[in-house]
Amino acid sequence: MSNKKNQKLRNLDPHLQREKERYKHPLPSREYILQILQQQGVPVAEKSLQKMLSITKKEQELFNRRLAAMIREGQLFRNRKDDICVMEKLDLIKGVVQGHADGFGFLIPDDSSADLYLSAKEMHKALHGDKVLVREIGVDRRGRREATIVEVLEYANTTLVGRLHIDHGILSVSAENKRISQDILISREHSLKAKSGQVVMVEIIQQPSKYAQPIGRIVEILGDYTAPGMEIEIALRKHDLPHVFSDEIEDMATRFPKRVLKKESKGRVDLCALPLVTIDGETARDFDDAVFCQQEGKGYRLYVAIADVSHYVKPQDAIDREALNRGNSVYFPRRVIPMLPEVLSNELCSLNPDKQRLCMVCEIEFRANGAVVDYDFYPAVMSSHARLTYTQVAAMLAHPKGTEAKQFAELLPHLKLLHKLFKALLKARIKRGAIEFETVETQMYFNDQGKIERIEPVQRNEAHRLIEECMLAANVCAADFLQKQGQTALYRIHEDPAPEKIEALRQFLKEFGISLGGKSKPTAKDYAHTLQQINDRPDAQLLQTVMLRSLQQAIYSPEITGHFGLAYDAYTHFTSPIRRYPDLLVHRAIKAVLDGESYEPGDWQELGKHCSMTERRADEATRDVESWLKCFYMQDKIGESFDGVISSVTGFGLFVALDDVYVEGLVHISELPSDYFHFDATKHRLLGERSGVQYRLGDRLRVKLVRVDLETSKIDFVLAEEQKKNGRIRKKQVSKA
Prior knowledge:
alpha+beta; CATH 2.40.50.140; 5-stranded antiparallel beta sheet; 5-stranded mixed β-barrel
């Protein structure tokens, strides 16, 4: 009778039909398991739960797996008696551990509530990135919510890269990721005979606990810390960047044809006679876009031809899966980690001069004022008529009778027309109100030993901006096309600034007698107008920096929320499928529409999150490498003095960017003149309580280099003697300059 009653109870599962559709032998749904447990009102032994739900012996293993998944995802919890509890009843909080180099950490809750402080003692139980359950235990001395770790749900670190240390016969590895502050213990038999100081890869074989340090084994010796290129090897592993193509992919790569086959050109528009050209930097190796412009009445017709990567990389094949995994190419100084195998990125899909190549074309008709009249997308075959550089094109436009212009005389009229279109597009951009910040990009030049010889600013010229405007136009047309056709895709979205950041910016600008229009919802045009106002001011760099920091980060998403900075209602990435996976998805979506079909690669939201993550991952990795190289470059300059500008103000000091050297370091708050300095986040300054001396973002300083730490990639400055004597920065006052 009891079994019949329990079976009847199981049949009351409101999601029974869904489970039957999904599984041949349906189990009680997650929702129903939670419902039954909540109805009991107390923790339930697993055997009792199985009995309640009539779980048979054959079903036990699958049922245990379902419970384990629910525990892993924080829906359920096993207490010390091994009873099953409903998480919501326990007041436990699920989240991800964020470690700090000083040993403590924070829990970043999944529910987006305020972070919780984890003491150094608590951080012995877990590593940075682990998913855990915590219980809030009150507030610490600084008034922060504090928690204790109850259980680790999921370990984030199975391998890590670090340096081996041998101290009194004890081997340990300190992680390159400084958010992991615990050393990993290594036994002699698991050391691969690595030497002290060498960089190694470690597999963690025992995760940390309340009573024990993590234990690992060395699986790879990378080499000496200062060996050429080691900084890149470390960054690849520290940030889990995929950088080796599998044997399957290498085998597939060998089977691609060496050239475009005749049958592949069928059904495509033949543009081989059209004088399309590529315009890139001197060091570029993959050319994925070519342009050509011709007069169309009083207006223009622009051809933007983009390498047709989607012809070669098919959905769900091995190359596609790896391209998605990588998300984008990663550009380190002197080394590129490509998204695609070289046979595609540098050969078949690279628009090399005088080679037939398959492409996707965006053909746009413009009015004389730069407004789009019409556009068309189609697959084509082309042959680039020249591989030009930005420097060459800028020289040809500036000196139409010069050497460069004579060398490419037949292309010069087309380039002049392209330049006229650029001027029209630039006026349209200004009218639209797109934001344009003046930023300095730098390039590192290396010696034969692979170390920095010098760092120089990259001079952006008219040719850079010309190509940029052409690519923007094609990207906007791609977004408009997909939107009008109702085809879901990944858009490049840049959301409006957060209200609190807008308010902080307004308060800051008010100090300088400057206003930002738009009231509570300023537009890009309001930002652009304010930038125009401050353009000729001596403190323009300071004001621009603060304005830039008020903006959000651009991401990929299927939601069409517009691009704030560029002032577009809809914007996507179409022009770089060799190096960005979102562009490849956009190409496939456009092709599907042209074929009267719909393209569904999976969950668009998840694809957007993944591609946004890989972009951030690449940025962090390249930043790490550049920081280490700059530290190495500054090693022999300790004791020297430099002029610079305060690039960031924090509660612990000032970051100073050096003039001409383009290196940044910290003046710690303890190195400032004797006083109690208080951090004012709104005004981006440190203010002396007694003296009224203030150090503010954008202020100029003379500093002396006192320390370079290669392990942490940190550079420390102190105020130079002449700065201490003569550089008493502004007293507490409001500048109206």
